[in-house]
Amino acid sequence: MSQVQVEIQQPAPSEPLAAPTASHHRVRLPSWLTLLLRNHKAQIGLGILFVMVLLAAIAPWIANASSATNFVDLPRQPPSWSYPFGTTDQGSSVWAGVVFGARRSLATGFFAAVIATVLATSLGITAAYAGGIVDEIISLITNVAIVIPAIPLLIDVTAYLHSRSMLTMILVVGCLLWAIEARILRGQALTLRNRDFIQAAKVSGESTRRIVFGELMPNMVSRIAAAFILVFYISILVEAGLEFIGLGNTAKASWGVSLYWATVNSSVLQGEWWSFLFPGLAIGLTVLALTLVLVGIDEVSNPRLRGLPKKRRFAFRRSAA
Amino acid sequence: MRWFLRRLAFYVFALWVAITLTFVIPQLLPGSPIGGILQRLTPQQIQNNPGIILTYEKIFGGKNQPLLKAYWTYLDHAAHLNFGISTSNYPTPVSEIIARTLPYSIALVGISFILAFALGTTIGMFAAWRRGGGFDTIFVPLFMALGAFPAYFTALLIMYVVGLRLGWFPIQHAYGTSIVPGFDWTFIRSALDHGVLPALVIVLAFAGGWVINMRTVMINTISEDYISMAQAKGLKDHRVMTRYAARNAILPPLNGFAPQFATAVGGVIFVELVFSYPGAGYTLQQAALGKDLPLTQALLLVFAICPIIAIFIIDLVNFVLDPRIRAS
Fold first, then answer.
1. Which residues of B touch A152 (CB under 8 A)?
2. Cβ–Cβ contacts within 10 Å for residue A24, how many?
3. Among B270, B284, B299, which would you mutate to test the A interface (most chain A Cβ atoms within 10 Å of its Cβ)?
4. Which residues of A touch B146 (CB under 8 A)?
5. Contact between B300 and B22 (Cβ < 8 Å)
6. Taking a C-beta distance cutoff of 8 angstroms, is the pair B311, A146 a contact?
């Protein structure tokens, strides 16, 4: 599994000092989000992502659902006008497979990442905020969980599960990928915990619940979003990988399943490049898009990472509460 | 010393988790060790031999032992590297299959992953040193894109282009079909020849992560005062880059080595599968599909232990590179 591990930086929840003409009737986005939308890498990433989601959303209008998995025409046709991505060894349309597969692949990855993020956020923040023995225990478990390789474990688990439904896939992948995220968020919460505004809230006698949800969480939103994107693309890759080796529901269309059939029917050995190229590109482009957004977030929080000095410069200051 | 003890506690705990996990998962999940065997029999065969299930349970061990006793037996067996008999390769013992397949994986992953690390950090170092230059703008996005594609897709693509269209390297198995494994030149040559494509895939797929990681850390390091100091002293440019900036910047990527290795071990399963490379990953996939419980269990343990060993080695390297650890 290819991981582009992006170093997640110190938060520096930053906002432009002079918000020039903030019109009152417009909904104001969080400052990190507006900065992100101005970042070129993030723009490209969000653009690709938008196209992918759009394709998945309008799938029934641009492709025939039954041609994604069933026999529709002569097998092994190279790309043509009627089958833009060619046909598989089973005589189904690769285009329909990719478009309808996008729905399943994106949804599984997304919801698995949601589960992982919920687990990671609660564990990470609990560890950092509680400190002491609780922190030691959670950190130890997290560090061990990071080291246990997820894919062999997933192979083991999915091999013995009777159900191969999407829900099972989401649950299994989500519950095993929380650790990386938990470690990042714990580190993040740890630096925030000792900031003045948290200390001030403590001294003024606010309840723990209010400090965590009212003070700590709002300042971590950008970091949680970054960690979510990281796990989102890891789970797309992992899920496609499991399907690729035949441990998914091979009757349903998804990117991993398309690649599975391409290898099972040894399309590569017979020179049918179209049967694996397009689903693979779909996975790769989606992951690349998410990586670009992540790099964008990184560059926003650490301006030094940007390639060239920008003409327009922002003044940064640490936000207090 | 305190650092050392903490690390030792971590290894022991991680090892215990790995062993226990491989014990617990089959217990919790549906299916029995003999499921793989019974799958291959016809209903008539089972009906005609009423004692057959009991006999198999005796050979392979069933689920009817009390949990604690079963756990103890498992620990005992694991300590003696006795993992029972593979149901899909009956009657070969699991340990024998692992001994046959693991060396290929270790050689393949070990060499290519270290190559990926060296290549990635070197590119990251140059990219950061000449930030915004030609090298930075070409190689960083290129490796980022390569890293975004799943390893098995890169594998299929390389297999198609380099192996099939150009025909430069063999695309399947670990050595030629007519060659008997042994420590002679023909075998080693054949094995190296067959390893080129899988290794290339792993290097391409994993170098990208190191490029980004190293570049990020290196850029932060460059703005430190001691770098300006070194430059002010008039030291040669590449000396400042390697001895002052890179030496300090390499520590965070190095610490990320073990978690990355854990992911890589998983990725290798896919690469081995594509190239029908007879390593531990390919065997795990076959065993999982064939519901060969003893074999998957033992292989999972092997895969879980590999990163722990990697961490141990990284700790040793860290100990040499980072004087702060030695001092504490």
1. 265-266, 269, 284, 299-300, 303-304
2. 5
3. B270
4. 2
5. yes
6. no
Reported as a single tens digit per residue, the pLDDT across B127-159 is: 888 887 778 888 888 888 888 888 888 888 888
Q: What angle do CA A181, A185, A189 make, to 5 degrees?
A: 170
Q: Residues of B with CB below 8 A from A144's CB?
A: 10, 13-14, 17
3-state secondary structure of A171: helix
What residues of chain A lie within 8 A of the CB of B11, using their CB?
Answer: none
Phi, psi of B36 (to 5 degrees): -60, -35
d(CA B23, CA B6): 26
Token reading at B151 = 């390893």
Q: Contact, B215 vs B222, CB < 8 A?
A: no
Tokens of A251: 């009757």
For B252-295, the pLDDT digits (tens) are 888 777 777 777 777 788 888 888 888 888 888 888 877 777 88
Tell me the two tokens of residue A112. 């698995």
Interface of B with A in 156-175 (CB under 8 A): 156-157, 159-160, 164, 171
Cα of A201 to nearest chain B Cα, Å: 32
Task: Tell me the CA distances in angstroms from A253 to A120, A228, A273, one per residue in order.
Answer: 30, 25, 19
| Encoded tokens for B62 | 């069933």
Residue A313 has pLDDT above 60, yes or no: no
Q: Residue A12 CB: number of other CB atoms within 10 A?
A: 15
Whether residue B37 lies within 8 A of chain A, CB to CB, comes out as no
